[in-house]
Design brief:
The protein is of the alpha/beta class. Strands 1, 2, 3, 4, 5, 6, 7 and 8 form an eight-stranded mixed β-sheet that branches. Strand 2, helix 6 and strand 3 form a beta-alpha-beta unit. Helix 1 packs parallel to helix 6 and helix 11 crosses helix 12.
Amino acid sequence: MSTEDIKTTVRERYGQAALRVATGTKTSCCGGGSCGATADDPITANLYSAAETALLPADAVLASLGCGNPTALAELREGETVLDLGSGGGIDVLLSARRVGPSGKAYGLDMTDEMLSLARENQRKAGVANVEFLKGDIEAIPLPDASVDVIISNCVINLAADKRKVIAEAFRVLKPGGRFAVSDVVCRGEIPPAVRRSMELWVGCVAGALTEEEFRSALADNGFEGIEIEPTRIYEFEDARAFLTGAGLDTEVLAREVGGRVMGAFVRATKPVAPGPPRSCCGTECCA
């Protein structure tokens, strides 16, 4: 699968998901039967509390395609600037904006015009002012160096063609001491090659997922410290069978190989605080 094929397929599939929201259809792009009705989808179901969704427009909830709830786990603080990579219909951006308050700001970054249009309409309906949705690629974030306190993402990094570039960009735009706090699909151990080769399962959040070791290595190699990967939902045999269905593979056999090896996880890391300039003492003026 080429980089351009992956980006084109992901953009088209998530654009279709945004359009389905206009018809009032709950969508998901995770699993082999991607972007259809998903009341029992094992990856995207039951991630937000009723108290959280009650604050949001219905379309923001319908367009939630993640595998976790990063806003509940990221410990956002008043006045912080937050960036959501692959913000979709805006659910995590709108929740983040409320957590950081009027003195803070929440950015959403997405490459899909239909999702950006949906997100901006959801922002208008929610009446949230401290939000800005940007068009762009998470492999080339359109923000300056050291401009963000927290980066969140919800089941999107696994979709990127070059995940190390995404993580390098995240490190670049974070301020010293800034926090990387994302929900994503992560693998434990090897995944069968037939699954890895499936474009249907790439856009379905599984084929492109990093292993725990790969995720840790990519973060550490780019300078992050304090790396933690916390499982939030482990997909067992029945879950694996559900997300493999529709991918044109031998579901029963592969579900036994994949079950227990794929999980929703919360990934934390911190950009180190840059050391200040060395102190020198050469006279009474600096040695009080």
